[in-house]
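Can you give me the bound-state structure? Components:
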Amino acid sequence: MTAGTCKKFFYAAVAHVALMLAALSPAMAATAQWDVDQLMHTLAKAHAGQATFVEKKYVAVLERPVESSGELSFTAPNRLEKKTLKPKPETMLVDGDLLVIERGRQKHRLQLQDYPELAGFIDSIRGTLAGDRKALERTFRLTLTGDAQRWILTLAPHDAGVAQSVQQVRIAGSRDNVRSIDILQTDGDRSSMTIERVTPQ
Amino acid sequence: MRRVVFSPRWRVVCAWLFGAILCGIVIARTTFTTDLSAFLPTSPTREQQVLLDQLQSGVVSRLILIGIEGGDAPARAALSKQMAKLLRSDPAFVIINNGEPVHSQQDQAFLFQHRYLLSPAVTPERFTVAGLHAALGDTIDLIASPAGMLVKSLLPRDPTGEMVQLFEQMNAGNRPRQMHGAWSSRDGARAILLAQTRAAGFDTDGQQLAMAQIRHAFDAAVQQQNLAPASARLVMTGPGVFSVLSRQTIESEVTRLAIISTLIIVALLLMVYRSITALALGLLPVLSGALVGIVAVSLGFGLVHGITLGFGTTLIGEAVDYSIYLFVQSRQAGAGSAEQTRNWVTQFWPTIRLGVLTSIAGFASLLLSGFPGLAQLGLYSIAGLISAAAVTRFVLPHLLPADFRIRDVSALGAWLARTVHYAPLLRLPLIALALAACVLVFQHRATLWNAELSSLSPVSRADQMTDARLRADMGAPDVRYMVVVTGAEREAVLVAAEKVAQQLAPLVAQGALAAFESPTRYLPSRATQQARRASLPGSDLQQRVQQAAAGLPVRSEVFTPFLADVTAARQRPLLTRADLDGTSLALAVDSLLFQREGTWNAILPLTASAGSSDGMAVAPIRAALDAAGQPNALFVDLKAESDHLYAGYLREAILLSLGGLVGIILLLLWNLRSPRRVLRVLLPLAAAVAMVTAILVLSGQRLTILHLVGLLLVVAVGSNYALFFCGSRTDGADAGVILPQTLTSLVFANLTTVAGFGVLGFSQVPVLQAIGTTVGPGAVLALLLSAAFSIQQPQRPDRIEVE
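Here's the bound-state model for the whole set.
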């Protein structure tokens, strides 16, 4: 009975999780030659990671950004958990095709494949972690700037479903370490997440 | 001519025919049923009344769970959508839910427009400066979460987050998994749909029609999807489906078993009699008994249950005994046919009469049962046995042709007599066995009886498994627990339901309950609506919002739409049921809030928290109800209630059977006038009952109420054997010998009984199977034991005259 609203809610949620995935990819900078292929290759070597995050959201109706923080954990190939501790406890888990969101007593489960545009989006991020450039380019145009010490990967969606809500994703890192994920939404609101790795590989 | 017409024979035949025609007329006007009515109490308690309402016409009874199996997931989802589309336009269904967002737009519009009347968070405190500050803070926190993308657009109109409140309240509990836009089982192997029929659960015809429509829609969908017909499979379950399946099973089983047992008995009798006339005459008492039995139940109860009819087939096994006794025993009595019959009447009839009276004493106790099914069985048996015996005694002798002769069975009689001569040798082993049986039964006394009503369900195990599987898939509330609030007025019922809901809410928060539903969520009482509307501030709201926003990262100008919405809400009239039309909420309210026989009922279904699969702790719920202080609110555990009901029947039936036993003892005492002889008659029967019970226990069965009826039948049938072996007469004449012809008649009678009841043992209907597996072995054991413990020795073999 509330499917429409829930759907929007889940789109938002899934979009977030997808971007979280990207953040937890420990990477390794090894060679002087630095291009997308090299980055993919480096990120692909990740197996598991723990991190803390601080996320700031800049929303038009609010004068100041709202902040949330918590923990992230990733297990290769496709399990990601985002545990928000502040301001309200909340858990979000993506495992394979299953997405589970828990907030208070509410627990929602859904299948990514029911939301094709989001599934494509997530698969693209997984593509990043897996170093699968082909999967990424199915949804995004990739632009890499900087060097191994300080790189920025910009994802601009060319998939219509993703492009409806997301204008651009910018992932910044240093060697094998993803430091931040910035998402710019089509309505002008944006979020910026900084990530601190807890257990280096 | 006159002499012929008024001869005793013709008078008797005319009387019988007249009686048969009368019976035919009554039966033609009789209502036959296979629904639950046989198992429902005639004077229910309040809890039982809730159970009955729910079983007969509650929402629960109208649900059909549908599963689509086979094929791949996208094909199943497509079938589900196609089926749902077809069924939604079918007037036989009120709701078809397969996870598609059919009503979501109307529902959301309704909720949003009336959020200030519906949200439980709307109180005067919430709209004070402090309350608003806290609510705004919560909403801003939510914006920080992943759900923020949704909430941020609502902030200007709904800054206190009333929509979030409503969603959270409604999304509690489990929902099925979504795959390709339709519900699927958790493992993804089935698409699932939920249908609510317009027909009530007790309307088996209506349910059958609904099932046919579903099957039709499925076939049509398969065709439209261009699928191979074998690639997808439809499964259905639900209370209505069970009724339909039960009816089909009972009907087909009763017909099949009646035909089989009749064939076996006819073959047996033909083999013995070698005469069609004798066969036809022999079946006359059976036919009469069955007719009168049905008529008696029809007149006594207003309707006849299918189970009673099924039981009727078993009566063939007992009633046919009487004519066997007449035909076989009268052969040994003398020369001419008329004289033979007279001799039989003086020599054997008293014993048979006592046997019939003993059976009646046993069954009479069942008449008092509060379990209508059992009372019907009792009346049917009594009327049937009396008529069969009376026809044997008063009609049959007049119909026997002058040269009536059946096959000479004296050779068999002689052989039997020789065999029985040695039967007493078995006494010691049989006593040992009987004692062992008693010990075994005593050891299992705690688990002897099955106190669950479901043990009587004619639904097959496979169908029950399908039901459990689909229910688990649906994550549906198992609708086992509910609170029912009743009252004369809708408003009063809503007010009481709100008080109950208020007490239940903390239980959900504590996790004692997973969730509960209430009609007041969608249609609060007028009092509550008024209170909520009165909580909304007037002209000073703007000022309050400005103060509340202080210190929060938001400008108060953002909330201009909020001010307009609140002003509009203050002027809007209260919600009525009509406002819900066009939303799926209307159906929810109608199923949870309804008027029956002048009384309003509100149902609050409770969902037990996960992990408490084997019943939930009811103490907190009862405490919550006490705290709500609503005398008209009743907590009902439907499963416990039905089991309780059945356990009550069972207890009562056991007591009544014991009462019947006392009746039998008194009857025998009065007739035999010797406690020793009574003991002689009863001992073999008691031993037979103990042994049959032990056999059932050893084969892993737990006894149901129908096993008890079976044991009563063992006593009823066995009493004839025991009486013949012990001699019923008190004058001592003929005492000490049992004639070979009598033995033969007993063996034939036993064979027909075993054939009649034994067939039931192979039935799929537990009720009939229970009787079959009890009476079949029981009758054999009763005969064997009666022979072994007989005080009358058969004529010594060397003295038997061979004709």
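A couple of observations. The two ends of chain B are 39 Å apart (CA to CA). The longest helix of chain B spans residues 239-273.
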